[in-house]
Amino acid sequence: MGGSWRSRGxxxxxxxxxxxxxxxxxxxxxxxxxxxxxxxxxVLGLHGAGQEIRSGVFDENQVRAAAGITMLMGAxxxxxxxxxxxxLPIQTVTTFFFMEFVIRVRFGxxxxxxxxxxxxITHLPPQWVSAKPKRFAWTLxxxxxxxxxxxxxxDIRGPLPLTICLxxxxxxxxxxxxxLCLGCEIHAWLVRRGWMSKDEAFEICASGACNIDGHPxxxxxSSDSVR
Length: 227
Hints:
mainly alpha, 2 domains, two-stranded antiparallel ribbon, 9 helices
C-alpha cells in the first residue's frame, strides 16, 4: 500500500512540479477518485511564518499564467465586438469564462481547462499560496463572468457590458502582470473590518494579502518549503 502511494506521488511530482512528499489526497486526485474535501493541492512539509501550512495551496505562477490567458482571450473578444461588430467571440468567451470559474471555484484550478494548459506552459519552481483566497477571488470572477455571459448572449450592447468587461480585464492584468490578487486583498480588508471571520486556511498569500494581523506570511517558495 505504501509503495503504491509513493508511486502515485512520484507521478504527481512530475505533473505539478512538486518536490518531496505528496499526500494521499493528491494520490486520490491523480487516480480520478472522488474529489477530496480539501480545496487545492496538499503539499507535505510546506512552512510559512514558522509553522506548517496545512491547508490546500496553488502555484502562484500557474494562477498568474491563467489570468494572463483569460486577459488575452477577453481583450481579443472585446476588440472583435467593439471594432469589428462581431459579437460571437465575446459571447463564446464569456460563456467559457463562466464554466472555467465554476470549475475553479468548485474543484480547483487543477481541474479547469486553463489549469491543464498552464501546467504545460509554466516551468518555474512552484511558488505556493493558499488556495482559499484564490477561491474567494475566483468567486468574484464567477459573478462577473456570469453577468457578462447573460448580457452578451441577450444581445445587450452599450456602456454596461463595456464597463464590466474593462473591469474584468483590469483585474486580470493586475494579477497576471503585477501579481496583485484584488479579491484576496478585498477578503483581507473585510476580515480586518470585522465583516467576515478569519479563515485559518488563509495562511500564505501573494503580496502578503493574508497578513490580517500584520504578521509576515513567510516564504512560500518550493525549494525552501517542501521537503
